Amino acid sequence: MRRELLGLLAVASVVATACSAPTSRGSEQLAGGEGAAGFGEAEPAPVPAQPARVEAAPPSSLTLEQNLRPTSTSTTVAPRESTTTAATVARPAISSPPTTGVGPLEETENGAESSADEPVFEADPLPPLDLSAGRRTGRRPTAPDEQEPDVPTGWAAFDQSIHDQLLRNGNTAVSVAVSIGGDVVHSASFGTRVPGTLTAMTTADRFRIASISKTITAITLLQLVQEGVVGLDEPIGAQIAAHLGVTNASAGSSRLTVRSLLTHTTGYGKYYGTFFGKGAQSCHHAGAMGVSQGGGGGGYTYSNMNYCLAGLAIETLTGRTYEEVVYEKLLTPLGLSGLRLPPTFDPGPGEVQHVSTPGRNYMETLGGAGSWIASPIDLVTIFDALDPATPGWAPLTDATLRQMLTPTHGQYGQRGYGMGMILYGGGRYGHTGTIENTHAMVQNRGDGVIWSVTVAGPYPDDTPRLESVINRAFEEAGFVAG
């Protein structure tokens, strides 16, 4: 059970377009490994080339009114019981890992699409929030002689802003969820589930989440490390090759480890054509190509091959399908259902249709690197469970989470890529996801607020811009302090 929040804005009607431990066995293998470091000041690591963005300032704590619960039609998750309040995450020094050249077997087919999913470690300035600032009525009252229409405020204004910013430029469906201190306090959806129809959206509808799938894969594989099933730095490439029936595995692949796969330091190149150009029929097929052709070690190079193989490592180590193990270890304990690895075409009930070019098959090939579908509520629920400041069941111990949030060749608190997590510095972390007509993002702001937004459509072409969309919605809702 999730705890009751202390003090939340009473939410008015949403605009018409809106809907609505495991054991720590094996943890000693996690301590003292590559990237392990203490809190506090960290020596800057080389920063990979990324578009210039302004570094965030630490936010103030959230100010919340007492004993108010949301009253909108938004879908919420039952609160976990607790008497504590959410803590603000410490904000150590900021830096980032080095970016080396691409690994072997670099491919370029459909490269523009895959390059759009490259992590960006810089983030927008983080506006401090005061969620008591929105009017409780949800709309600005007008005097009898006023002619101008009522102006939405609070969550109604938040929803209007999300709608106006994202349900445009060819987008057909949008959904958003916000949690505070472990409770999902607001969610909304806009558009239609199937383009060109009048099928109304709901907040439970599931979108492609693309590379946010990497976070799900990393959590599950790190649980196996915690349980002592495998060591973080134990070579597992030969086992994966045997699982895939590969008899001609490369010498380098024998040195694959959980750490190198999850941190993108295997030496694998991008494999654009394999995953996005029909170069493989499935993740198993793509993974067999990977262990036959390369891997073993190298600098940081973001590659879907690493997480396709990480998902296959879960199968190798458990003797069960990747999807079954994710449900057992992560989704079922959180009460989540309906998430799955669908094909590129033919979405099921309650699944949003993303317009896709005929003949493509990336959902079949990405596997643990990018094939999950989920709702924003699902995503903030998973991230809530990771946050040690929230009560209830947690999939990872604090020691394991610390490793997950330590960047490659860096120290805890720096920017960079951790294990299935994009680290923005200052306590902020999350992930983005981009596939054809798919844009998704989830972020823990580091101040007790976690948000997620999913989009079916081509806009924005730069997925990290979704953070700016959310920040603008908070501002237009009157939730930005000062």
What does this 3D model show about the protein?
The protein is of the alpha+beta class. 25% of the residues lie in helices and 10% in strands. The chain has 13 helices and nine strands. The protein has helices at 111-115, 154-166, 213-226, 237-243, 258-262, 272-276, 283-293, 304-318, 322-331, 362-366, 376-386, 398-404, 466-476; strands at residues 173-180, 183-191, 207-208, 373-374, 416-417, 422-425, 428-435, 438-444, 449-456. The strands form two sheets. A seven-stranded antiparallel β-sheet has the order 2-1-9-8-7-6-5, with helices on both faces. Strands 3-4 form a two-stranded antiparallel ribbon. Helix 2 (154-166) packs antiparallel against helix 13 (466-476), helix 3 (213-226) runs parallel beside helix 8 and helix 7 packs across helix 8 (304-318). The longest helix is centred in the middle third of the chain and has 15 residues, at 304-318. The relative contact order is 0.22.
Tally the helices: what do you get? 13
> Would you give the CATH topology?
Beta-lactamase
Q: What's the CATH class label? A: Alpha Beta
CATH superfamily: DD-peptidase/beta-lactamase superfamily
Strand order of the largest sheet: 2-1-9-8-7-6-5
In the CATH hierarchy, the architecture is 3-Layer(aba) Sandwich
Distance between the termini: 34 Å
Order of helices and strands: HHEEEHHHHHHHHEHHEEEEEH
Shape call: globular
Instruction: Output mean pLDDT.
Output: 79
